[in-house]
């Protein structure tokens, strides 16, 4: 099985070392390497609790933020979004910085990169010590941001070559309810914030979820709100790669309880969604759609999407998309690609709305 990297052997006493196994998380009593085992089946985590280590505390009420390298602007943006967002419910809420770093298999030497087993132990120790110091410096930047916001912070280090799988496997291990991930798109022209939330205390909680993303655009919030409220049938004129049409089935454009049908292209296929305009809040530039029929209902028992347009000065805004859903069964994946769809749609509309 995969083991915690040898560098963690010298970690200070304030750090707890665990290994993730099928039934949960168990303390590691020894550290050793097994190169013959398959990669990615298990991974190791290092939780820097700074508290009582006689027991493993429940981390489920905390907010987990994935952070990358020190030049990763999207990670800092995701953290700053978290610190300003109402998901931080109180001053007692902990933010856990989750950093995935690669398994060390090759060590630089005068002869080039060599397998760990082939280099002098002192050279190995020197390299892993330097890598450990680099991680401390990296995390310190994020820790200082949390301290400035007066938010309590801990760190979770994961040694794995597969970042996405490591994060997904961590969710049930630590009973994570809130996870925030930032991703830059199109040469950093905009940022996608993925916010995953689960409510394990509620019935069928394993099937319920919430995803959220913020998209910054250089266009007024009121114009974005207006086109989706009164003129959704015009969206296809400016973002035809995403939306091919919108028809009114019941009621009036811009009215609560009206029913409209979206025709859109998602995941390589043309799709439809018949939705109810469930709520409109003009003061907060918010619209909520409830899906009644269509492709989404083949996988979800219920599905709602909310768009909130947040002004950022006179000519810029943040468009927040929130998806709340209940899957038909646990083999259905969470609709992350719909957040990407929404982001692409919003960026396509940006130029038109800025000029309108």
Automatic annotation (TrEMBL):
Domain of life: Eukaryota
GO biological process, one term: defense response
InterPro entries in alphabetical order: Bet_v_I/MLP (IPR000916), Rossmann-like_a/b/a_fold (IPR014729), START-like_dom_sf (IPR023393)
Residues of the Bet v I/Major latex protein domain: 206-356
One of the Pfam families matching this protein, by short name: Bet_v_1
Matches recorded under PANTHER family: ADENINE NUCLEOTIDE ALPHA HYDROLASES-LIKE SUPERFAMILY PROTEIN, U-BOX DOMAIN-CONTAINING PROTEIN 52-LIKE
Protein name per the record: Bet v I/Major latex protein domain-containing protein
């Amino acid at each position: 099985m995969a083991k915690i990297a040898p560098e963690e052997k010298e970690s200070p006493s304030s750090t707890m070392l665990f290994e993730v196994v099928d039934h949960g998380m168990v303390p590691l009593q020894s550290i050793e390497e097994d190169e013959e085992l398959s990669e990615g089946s298990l991974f190791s985590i290092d939780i820097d609790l700074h508290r009582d280590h006689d027991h493993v505390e429940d981390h489920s009420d905390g907010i987990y933020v994935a952070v990358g390298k020190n030049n990763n602007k999207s990670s800092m943006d995701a953290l700053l979004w978290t610190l300003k967002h109402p998901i931080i419910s109180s001053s007692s809420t902990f933010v856990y910085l989750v950093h995935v770093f690669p398994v060390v298999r090759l060590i630089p030497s005068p002869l080039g990169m060599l397998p760990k087993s082939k280099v002098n132990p002192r050279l190995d120790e020197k390299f892993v010590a330097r890598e450990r110091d680099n991680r401390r410096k990296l995390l310190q930047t994020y820790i200082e941001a949390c301290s400035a916001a007066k938010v309590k912070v801990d760190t979770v280090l994961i040694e794995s070559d597969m970042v996405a799988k490591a994060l997904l496997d961590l969710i049930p291990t630590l009973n994570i309810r809130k996870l925030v991930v930032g991703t830059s798109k199109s040469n950093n022209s905009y940022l996608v914030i993925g916010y995953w939330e689960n409510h394990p205390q509620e019935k069928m909680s394993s099937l319920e979820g919430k995803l959220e993303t913020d998209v910054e655009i250089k266009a007024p919030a009121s114009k974005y709100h207006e086109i989706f409220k009164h003129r959704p049938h015009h969206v296809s004129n400016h973002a035809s790669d995403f939306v091919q049409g919108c028809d009114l089935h019941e009621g009036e454009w811009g009215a609560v309880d009206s029913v409209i049908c979206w025709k859109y292209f998602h995941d390589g296929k043309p799709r439809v969604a018949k939705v109810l305009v469930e709520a409109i809040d003009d003061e907060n530039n918010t619209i909520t759609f409830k899906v009644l029929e269509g492709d989404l209902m083949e996988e979800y028992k219920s599905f709602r999407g909310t768009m909130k347009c947040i002004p950022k000065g006179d000519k810029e805004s943040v468009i927040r998309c929130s998806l709340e859903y209940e899957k038909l069964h646990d083999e259905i994946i969470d609709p992350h690609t719909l957040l990407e769809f929404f982001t692409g749609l919003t960026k396509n509309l940006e130029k038109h709305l800025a000029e309108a």
